[in-house]
Every structure is written in C-alpha cells, then in structure tokens.
Amino acid sequence: MTGKPENGAFMEIACDESGSDGENLTGGNTDVFAHASVRLPVETAAAYVQEIRRRIRSPAEEYKANHLLRDKHRAVLESFLGPAGPLRDGNAHVHLIEKTFFVVDRAVDLLLGGEGDGTEAITLFRAGPPTFGGHGWREFLAAANQLLRVRNDGPATDPADVFFRTADALRDLYSGTTAGVVVGRLAAARSRAESYRERMRDSPVLFPVLNPLLPAIVSTALYWLAEGRPVRLVHDRQNMLTPERIAWIMESAPLSDVQLVAARSDARVQLADFLAGIARKLASDELNGRGDPALTALLRPYVGTDAVWGDAGSGLRLGTVLANSAVQRAC
Predict the structure, then answer these.
(1) How far is the C-alpha of 309 from the C-alpha of 118, rounded, in Å?
(2) How far is CA 130 from the centre of its chain?
(3) CA–CA separation, 237 vs 240, rounded Å?
(4) By C-alpha distance, which of 318, 314, 293, 291 is closest to 305?
(5) CB-based contact 140:162 (threshold 8 Å)
(6) What is the C-alpha separation between 229 and 233, in angstroms, rounded?
(7) Torsional class of 289: left (φ above 0), alpha (ψ -120 to 50), beta (otherwise)
(8) pLDDT tens across 156-167, in order?
(9) Which residue, of 148, 164, 183, 297, has the fewest CB within 10 Å?
(10) What one-character DSSP code corresponds to residue 236?
C-alpha cells in the first residue's frame, strides 16, 4: 500500500511486536502485548545492531530481545535503553496492552456500547478478582475471551451460553457488590452478544476484536502523526496484516504508506523487535510484582500514554495508568 506525502518527506517509522498469542488472551504464553516503533536512519540502526553483536558476541544468526535480557548482558541492555542509547530523544515509542484488561475492556464495549460512563471496564477489572475470588475471576475471563474470539476452539457449547451462564451466576452471588452490579449489566445484554456471534457466523471477520495488533498499529501511527508529517510505517511481516486490514489501518490513522518487510532485512525493524521484546518482559515483570526498578525507569520514557492497562500499581510504575481518563475517574 502506498500513498503520496502531502507536506514534506515521509517520516519512516519501523515497527515490530512481542507477545502475540492471537485471540487467546487469557490462556496464552504471555500476559502483555508490546508494539514498538523506531525512527532512525537505516545506517544508524545498522551500525547499532552491529555494535550490539560486537558486545554480546553470540554465534546466533539473528539476535532477539532475549540476548539483551540475559543477566550477563545487563550493561548492553542498559546502554540500549539509556539516555546515551540510539532510541532516546523521541526516536522510539512502545504501546503496551495488558491482555486480561483488554479482554474485559472489549467485552464491556461490546455489551454496553455507549450506555456506560467509560469506567465500567476498569471498575470490573479491579473489583472482580477480590470479589469473585481467583477461580470465579478466571472463569469469567475465559468465558469472555471465548465469547469474543472468532474461532471457537473450546467445547461445542455455544460461547454465548457459557458466558451468560457464568455472568448470571456471578451476578446472583455478588449482587450487592460493585463488581456484581457491572456483571449484572453485562448479563442483561445477551441480544448484543448473540448479534455479534451471528455476524461472525455469517460473514468473514475482517477485524477480530480480540487481536491486539491492529489497534496497537493504529495507536502507534497516531502517536507519530501527531508531529504533523506524513508517516510511512515499515512493519515486520505478519499474517494478520492482509491488504484489506492494511487499507483499514491507513484509513483509521491515516497513514501515507505501509510496507511489510522481513525483520532481518531492515536494521530499524530489528531494533523495534529488540525494544518490543524488552518492553513486554519488563512490563510483565512489573505486572507480576517482580520488576527491576532500574530497568523500569529506563523503559518508562518510551511507554505511550495510550497504553491499554488496568493494573494500578504496575501502571503507575510504567507510566501508563494516569494517561487514561476513564482510569483516572475510576481511581
């Protein structure tokens, strides 16, 4: 997909992601999705990739974030993220998505639409676990994930039946609680869920609501477009990025151009790959209470204020929570 720049030359932004489990957001291998973008000349990026290779000295043909995340390469990691590294001074950005919150947010959006005040998802996400208990909360998340996903990989049971049976039970058990009230509102919206499932059965789904890649790319594009110049995204190849979806992304942002490349062929994309993998790991560590304060502080300048993040403590440390006005109202 290509277009013409309107005001000056294209600003080329190289992108990659880490933590993709498709639509399996509650039972996948990772709990955080990260989309990283880098603005650097090709020559500068290539020189820095070579510098990383020189310092790490791994025989691996292709370097990944886990090379920099090893304890013995801590100095290389700190240099990569630090103020003297290649990505500072506005040259990089990371969009973070906390996967379980993304499921709750998408379920609330589908079932309540514009009928809420914008705080229901964060309220349910924070009040649900202590109210429903670990088992009840996991059941709710799994049912919501299955309701929203395009493919039904679970039992033959209708996903809508499973979700509303779960929601009804939680509503009845916890009717006097904040979380119970929100679930009760969701339980009353079965017609919207059935309409959604019917649309998925009757026609191909162009934009799966649970795949975080598409909204992450749009958020990334809007971040760079705010500088007022035409933007060309150079993105690692993904099966998800079909021509139809790229066209939708370009209309939504709007971008001037999107080019798909193999990560190994573009040093800028390799740096975005490093940053995405590092950000996903450090954000996950913070989310799970094992964060490294020094590394989190180095990551924070890159984290976008439009992150989809529900956990208050880790969000404050990463710099995500206060960006969301709905989160601020719910705090």
Answers:
(1) 14
(2) 25
(3) 9
(4) 318
(5) no
(6) 13
(7) left
(8) 578 999 999 999
(9) 297
(10) E
Q: Is 243 exposed, middle or buried (0-12, 13-18, 19+ CB in 10 A)?
A: exposed
Strand partners, 16: 36
166's tokens: 């779960």
Residue ranges for the chain with pLDDT beneath 70? 1-8, 152-156, 204, 321-331
Q: How far apart are CA 79 and CA 201, in angstroms?
A: 50
Instruction: Return the pLDDT at 1.
Output: 38
Residue 107 is given by DSSP the state: H
Please report the sign of the dihedral spanned by the C-alpha atoms of residue 264, residue 269, residue 274, residue 278.
Answer: negative
Q: Is 72 helix (H, G, I), strand (E, B) or coil?
A: helix
What is the spatial distance between Cα 66 and Cα 168, in angstroms, rounded to a whole number? 43
What pLDDT is attached to residue 328?
39
pLDDT at 4: 39
pLDDT of residue 172: 97
Look at residue 321 in the predicted model and tell me its pLDDT: 65
Tell me if the pTM is above 0.90. yes
Residues in the chain: 331
Report the DSSP pairing between strands 92-98 and 11-18: unpaired
Given the DSSP bridges, would you call strands 32-38 and 11-18 parallel, antiparallel or unpaired? antiparallel
Query: How far is CA 136 from each of CA 31, 173, 174, rounded to the nearest angstrom?
Result: 19, 11, 11
Side chain identity at 52, as an amino acid letter?
Answer: I
